[in-house]
Structure formats: C-alpha cells, structure tokens
Design brief:
With 315 residues, the chain is mainly α. The protein has one domain: Rhodopsin 7-helix transmembrane proteins (Rhopdopsin 7-helix transmembrane proteins). 76% of the residues lie in helices and 2% in strands. Strands 2-1-3 form a 3-stranded mixed sheet. The termini are far apart. The N terminus is likely disordered. Keywords: Cell membrane, G-protein coupled receptor, Membrane, Olfaction, Receptor, Sensory transduction, Transducer, Transmembrane, Transmembrane helix.
Length: 315
C-alpha cells in the first residue's frame, strides 16, 4: 500500500449515520442488540450443526460456513460503528480503514459464492436425489468452499491494490459509517475512472457469476417441481429450498442496489440504508431464516437440549 504514503491527509474520519446525539444513542442500542442476536444466532447455528450428527450433510456443511461468514463480516463493521456512535472520536487510520475494507470484501464476496454453492446443492438434492450422496461428496464440498474463499481473497486483493495507489489530498471525511469503496473513491484527487472500472468488473463478475449459478439451479429446480404430480411432493420440494431462496433474495437485492452502479450515482441516504441492511441486519436474519423455517434444525436443537438436561440429571 505504498500509494497511501503520498497522501496529504493524516487519516480518515467516519461521519457515521447522523449528527444527532439522541439518534446516535438510539442507534447504538439498536445496533448492539442486533449484533448480540447476530453473534448468538450464528454461533448457535454453528454449534447445533456441529453437535448433531444428523445435520452432518452437505447442506448444513455450507450453512455452517454461511454462519461463520455472517458472524465475521458483521464483526468487521458493527464494533467500529458502535464505537463511533458512543464516542466523540470518529477517526480511523489508513491502515485500519483499508484493513476493514479488505476483510469486508473478502467475507461479502465469499458469501456470494457460498450461496451459489448452496443453490447447486439444492439443485442436486431435488433434481438428482438418487445420486446426491455421490455428487455432493466431501471432496466436492471442500473444493467449492475453498474456491469461494480463494476467489474472494483474490477479488479483495485486486480491489485493495488499486485503491491503495490513489492519492488523497482533498477532504478526509468519509460520508459513511464504515470504509467502503464508493465513499473512499469520492475523496480521491486522482483520476479514479480506471480504478472504478476494475472494481466494477470485480464486483460485477462476482455478483453476476454467482447469480447465474443460482438462477440456473432454481430454474432447473422449478422445472423439476412442476413435473411432480402430488401436491404434498411439490410442497416438500419447495420447503427444502425456501429458506435459501429467501436469504438469497434479501442479500442480492441490497448488494446489487449498493454496488452495481457508478460512483456518480452514490447517494448518501439511500446507500447508507442499504449498507446498514446488508452489513448489520442480514447477518442477524440469516440464522433466523434457516432455523425458524427449518424443522431439522429445530429438532436438532431440541435433541441437544434434551441430551444436555439428561447429562445434568445423571450428575
């Protein structure tokens, strides 16, 4: 990140979401509650899947890592946001800012590819159930996971290298509550057109490639479900992918709104609302979506609680 040494501003200042002290207090309490639910929900989901042998399947293998990603990319953003809301100091160093941006892109991009892997898993389960254990082998699942992380790290590294070469000699005030690409690009006194294009290609290819996989999987799933004669069979098939489809819809709608557009169309109010949703709210919603709508997860939680109570009684 040698390019950052040539800047004439000492660091950045995160303006946050509001200047009102009363609103900041309300938001800090709200975000703290959401973050606690996020941590408890995602850690709980990981523990339930790990502790219950009946959930040691490809679908729940991916769901474990989805919870891991949600937990991490929420933790990259929310604690710093809470600090800014509760204290008068809103400054952040170049290193901290670019580190936050780097890991946020890693976890968000990895989630895109993980969601597409989950869609492929549901496609095989519904469209080719007899060969499901053979196709969705441990080797393939591990390969899909490694590919998701590998591409995410590559994507984030390219973004970071391009951003670090920019010069920042104008204002150092970031009109956002975390270090994201669009508001940082707006501060540069360099020509950002080439960097914008590279970032757009990276973000666009990540979103488009994963969406193509998800769309193709769900079109095949829909085609297969429509061929099922019984209503009960159709409901059962729909129920196996309903949670994933809901999670995908919420995640991609806000992500596309925030990122697949040029810097000139950046809008402080609209983009901050979308950013709060996908950085703070969605990581909380995912474990709720996948647990409350999933009988297997609820049954597993009951079994674990019963086993725990039984162990205590024996003591």
């Amino acid at each position: 990140m040698g390019g950052m040494n040539s800047t004439s501003v000492p660091g950045f200042i995160l303006m946050g979401l509001t200047d009102s002290a009363e609103t900041q207090l309300v938001l800090s309490v709200l975000f703290l509650l959401i973050y606690l639910i996020t941590v408890l929900g995602n850690v709980g989901m990981i523990l339930i899947i790990r502790l219950d042998p009946q959930l040691h399947t490809p679908m729940y293998f991916f769901l474990t890592h989805l919870s891991f990603l949600d937990l991490n990319y929420s933790s990259v953003i929310t604690p710093k946001t809470l600090q800014n809301l509760l204290t008068s100091s809103k400054s952040i160093s170049f290193l901290s800012c670019f580190t936050q941006m780097y890991f946020f892109i890693v976890f968000a991009a990895a989630e895109c590819f993980l969601l597409s892997s989950m869609a492929y898993d549901r496609y095989v389960a519904i469209c080719n159930p007899l060969r499901y254990p053979v196709i969705m082998s441990t080797r393939l699942c591990s390969g899909l996971l490694a590919g998701s992380y590998g591409i995410a790290f590559l994507d984030s590294t390219v973004n970071e290298v391009c951003m670090s070469k920019l010069h920042f000699c104008k204002s150092n005030i970031i009109q956002h509550f975390f270090c994201d690409t669009s508001p940082i690009l707006a501060l540069s006194c360099s020509d950002t057109s080439e960097v914008e294009l590279i970032i757009f290609i990276c973000a666009g290819s990540t979103i488009v490639l994963s969406l193509i996989t998800i769309s193709g999987s769900y079109l095949s799933i829909l085609s297969t479900i429509l061929k099922i004669n019984s209503t009960a069979g159709k409901k059962k098939a729909f129920s196996t992918c309903a949670s994933h489809f809901l999670g995908v819809t919420i995640f991609y709608s806000t992500t596309i709104f925030a990122y697949l557009k040029p810097k000139s169309s950046y809008s402080l109010g609209r983009d901050q609302v979308a950013s709060v949703f996908y950085t703070i709210v969605i990581p909380m919603l995912n474990p709720l979506i996948y647990s409350l709508r999933n009988k297997e997860v609820k049954s597993a939680a009951v079994r674990i609680l019963q086993k725990t109570d039984g162990s205590r009684q024996l003591k």
